[in-house]
Amino acid sequence: MATLKVSATLKIPPHVPSPEEDSEQLRKAFQGYRAVLLWTLDSAQRDAFLVNEATKRLSSNNWVIMEIASTRSSIDLLNAKQAYQARFKRSIEEDVAYHTSGDLRKLLVPLVGTFRYEGDEVNTTLAKSEAKLLHEKIAEKAYNHDDLIRIITTRSKAQLNATLNHYNNDFGNVIDKDLETNLEDEYLKLLKATIQCLTYPEKYFEELLRMAINKTGTDEWALTRVVTTRAEVDLQRIAEEYQRRNSIPLDRAIANDVSGDYKSMLLALLGHDD
Amino acid sequence: MATLKVSATLKIPPHVPSPEEDSEQLRKAFQGYRAVLLWTLDSAQRDAFLVNEATKRLSSNNWVIMEIASTRSSIDLLNAKQAYQARFKRSIEEDVAYHTSGDLRKLLVPLVGTFRYEGDEVNTTLAKSEAKLLHEKIAEKAYNHDDLIRIITTRSKAQLNATLNHYNNDFGNVIDKDLETNLEDEYLKLLKATIQCLTYPEKYFEELLRMAINKTGTDEWALTRVVTTRAEVDLQRIAEEYQRRNSIPLDRAIANDVSGDYKSMLLALLGHDD
Q1: Is B255 annotated to bind ligand?
Q2: Is the minimum CB–CB distance between B90 and chain A shorter than 8 Å?
Q3: Which PANTHER family match (chains A, B) (predicted)?
Q4: Which value does ipTM take for this structure?
């Protein structure tokens, strides 16, 4: 018979942590685990997971849905849809539509639905006429107008960019500025962010990181999401944008703000070898 | 130097055709050519071509858009979208959205946009609650209600089928019957046909063929479209449906109604070797 030999591995630490310290440490360990979990998924599975979380009642987040629908390439979004169906046995479209209502649904459903054209051909006549249409609707404060939503959710990014340049040239303001009238309105904020994601995603992600890091108590979920999903896409450009706007390198800002394994994980994704 | 030798190949026919007979013969030859042209395309290119025609002002046809969006598998619809972009340098979604407005747009845009789940899992609780929701909206004549459109355009065909069975069981009428109130309304007709395409496509195509053949002067365009696009999919089941409903085999009905090369072409697609 073997004798069970128990060695004392449990040691009372020199400083006994309070329950608050304990839970704080657990929370940090869990965040790192979360980040790692996200990172172990391939990008399609990761997006599928994020959208699914975002359509659940308790973790509902229209911004994550918008961000994934607007910043992924058409084929990456399609891959996420297929990963979603394989895992959840439903479509992204039905879950997003079911989860939302009113103007938010009106914006988000075609945004996730459209398999956007990605060529760089631009129809200048159309860009001019649709810039005019956008300007009219915004002047009328008809921010949820069918045609405004149609233009934002279905036109190619190149075409939309041309349209917004005409908007700026012909009407004297960037569209962003004209949409800043009522930023208490959830729909209007999301619409503005959608346009930014479609035409200038690095700027959108820079702002998101800035808010996440500057918050009292870092918003780790947003930080993790941006770093893990953009690491192999445009995180370098986002970091440049961050430094330009905040006069501190992104890695240093993150290092100042978080700690432990979580910090090591994020810095590794930012390209630090150690 | 070679001498050009001209032999008289132009002969006056024994019966000189009238201009009407001439144009009738040209028309028939052209129809055959059209059918052949459609048939030479692969199915994705064919659907792309049909949708593009349907979004042009002069050949506008919301039914063709609805039919393609509703009766193709998700992957076939995706292939059509890719063929469309390769050929027209725009997306199906933007052209459909641009071409339509009001309720028709509200129905057609998510219909073409959704990458529908195709598994056969059914959520019975959801089917019951959505059957109730559909019944309420239809009772209120709110045929363009957001939730009604959401259910029709995003749920899987299996789920929608379960929902409509609950509708029938719980409220005593098939949904078709309850939608028959005002068939002058273009939107309502299209909504009804959409439901049929999603749940019982052979029946939809049978009706389309019946109308096309019974019309004074066959509607060759519809006839060609159904025969060329369904030949390798479900034309056999459509033919069975046709015979059950009309007491005449589909091939005989077509043979009675058209002639020439066009007739040979259609019969060949129906499986006649000669």
Answers
A1: yes
A2: yes
A3: ANNEXIN (PTHR10502), ANNEXIN D2 (PTHR10502:SF220)
A4: 0.82
